[in-house]
Design brief:
Length: about 325
Amino acid sequence: MLKRLWTLCALAIAAVFFSAPVIADEYPSRPIKIVHGSSAGAPQDVMLRKLAEAMEKASGSPVVVEPRPGGTGQVAMAYLKGQPADGHTIFSDATGITSVLQLPGAAYEWTDFTPLYRIQLDPFALYVKRDGKYASLDDLIKDMKARPNEVRIGGYGTGSPHQITAIFLADQAGAQLNWVPYKSGSDAIAAVMAGDLDAAMSNISVYGRFKEKTSVVGVTAEDRVKAHPDVPTIDEQGFDLSRYHWRGMFINNGTDESVVDKLYAIVDQGVNSEDFQEYLTASSTLQGTMSRADFEKMLEEQAKNDAVTLRKIGMIQD
């Protein structure tokens, strides 16, 4: 009987040992996978592939980027949730996570994930047709006031950072707009070029692709973007709208803290690598590094502000 008891205890101890979470000394023990909800070739996908190359050098382990579009990021979220909380699977999302996951029907809350790293800041930009009826932001605002709810401004999605940023601007101007959702900010810019929209809210990082046929009348960066010094900030035109579309990383709740710390260090080395810094400059974007604690605080505040705006436009109820 005593021998049997010792055998059962030994088996129990072994079970705990072999089922224990991955710890930092063993990490990474296999390739790291980064999933995201954008399409292949989208700005987020391009950024992550650049970063993955640098992370491979820092970790000595393969780093794979896998687009899983659909459900405004929730397809990729579901994939992460189906993986072990061991730091080998990362979910990358952006500013919209705190608004989209407050909408009716959302499968998750942003707090279902552990914030890991804020990577990149991509200022919002307001696009109009080059040589069209708007030569400046002031021209557009005047038209919005003259034609309340008739000026068509589009961008990615409904309840998205693009829409929320446009609403912030309209509120400060004392004007109203007619928001038109598109599958991407680039699709909205193309609609501006075709004359189907009056303006588009997107990001400055894609300006190079559309500069021949569009103009940016304002950017939400604190200072003018070095790559486009002729583009004025919205703040310098009399508004208070310094706001960035950030892109970052999340992991499963319950991941061992030692693994989280090591993964943060790997990402940090990648972000600060010479190659990735060159990419940031070339893409007119900024480094978004902050501590994990500050990233979480930022998300909490952003979620509160998003809720106020979503209630205002009737997308969520108290």
